[in-house]
């Protein structure tokens, strides 16, 4: 499986990082080795002093597809989940400055938290309310209605470049409120009132 991630998909997050608003979705990938194994803690890697959490809505692909029209994109997923795109912000800053690829800052081992999934029919996809708490305090509070590109548009766009396969996961971008983690932090992600993951930082 592969993980396809979208950057800069929420206006307020673009503003907090003082990034340019993109004309097209910003796409990057994580390898399967980036997935944090279930129930494992997230270990801060030695190459960064500024690891940020980014809570994101996930979409699990259930059919193979290429050049998927936006109006058929809904047929390619049944399940929605929640996860974290851990980012070495210090390293990403250096890479961005030099115009280099982001992989070392975004795709390292453990950088992809994939929580549980639910059927999309259980949610109002136009308005999925999701949250991240850090040590019990809400740090990110998002709603899918604020995405610049909606799920179906993202699937269509991504599939122009990459064949989507069964089991691939799309990270749809983070809302505002990203921040640094430190050892012993507990991060809990929820959609509505239901918890989708719990991660301890080490
Ligand atoms: Zn992200």
- State the CATH superfamily name: Fumarylacetoacetase-like, C-terminal domain
Structural class of the helices, strands and pairings?
Answer: alpha+beta
Number of helices: 4
The major pleated sheet works out as: 6 strands, mixed
Helix content: 10-25%
The total number of structural domains is 1
CATH fold label: Fumarylacetoacetate hydrolase, domain 2
Q: What does this 3D model show about the protein?
A:
It is built from 4 helices and 13 strands. By secondary structure, it is of the alpha+beta class. It has one domain: Fumarylacetoacetate hydrolase, domain 2 (Alpha-Beta Complex). The strands form 3 sheets. A 6-stranded mixed sheet has the order 2-1-10-4-5-7, covered by helices on one side. β8 and β9 form a beta hairpin. The longest helix has 11 residues. The mean pLDDT is 96. Zinc ion (ZN) binds next to β1.
Topology:
Layout (H helix, E strand, L loop, with lengths): L2 E5 L3 H6 L9 E5 L20 E3 L1 E7 L15 E9 L1 E2 H9 L5 H4 L5 E8 L9 E6 L2 E7 L7 H11 L7 E3 L7 E2 L5 E6 L2 E7 L2
Parallel strand pairs: 1-10
Antiparallel strand pairs: 1-2, 3-6, 3-11, 4-5, 4-10, 5-7, 8-9, 8-12, 12-13
The structure holds zinc ion.
Features:
4 helices, binds zinc ion, 6-stranded mixed sheet
Quick structural gist:
The protein is an alpha+beta fold and 202 residues long. The chain has one domain: Alpha-Beta Complex (Fumarylacetoacetate hydrolase, domain 2). Helix content is 15%, strand content 35%.
